[in-house]
């Protein structure tokens, strides 16, 4: 496990830092002091990392494909897994108590916002006005396959031609993503630049991806 994205109100980790997907998970501290674990991939030493920030209040799944180890972490801490109420097909596959979320993640101070809702992709963004933290599990990322050369934050390759412009409604201080390290300063500007250049830089990203697949 490699620690990433540490700040006063939370921390992130990559359970398998050498994998290409760079799956990132996070724990954020709520307004009431509890710790919320987001899209977790389990790892040795994780409970010690979480304990540094307080008692676990709940686990949340923010993307339909990010069930990951949410149930295992929730059972270990005797808490529920929280799933957006409009997200289909996730709750029945979780071997843990499940709570459905409408707009607020419990009493955490974080709002749950529908970002994508299609038959193939359901994603929620999490935003805490109390600390300026935005969590986007898949639509944005910093892993290599998200980025055209010269980019530090990119829109997911499958969304490049129709980027999630609703993200402009947020003005976060920091951005945490589900693949790669987060953007801990000037996040709003980084998001705006990623959205503005998404379509324009799409051909470049696709060409670089094909070249990487063919020539390594």
From TrEMBL:
Gene3D superfamilies: Ribonuclease Z/Hydroxyacylglutathione hydrolase-like. InterPro entries: RibonucZ/Hydroxyglut_hydro. This is Metallo-beta-lactamase superfamily enzyme. It comes from Halapricum desulfuricans.
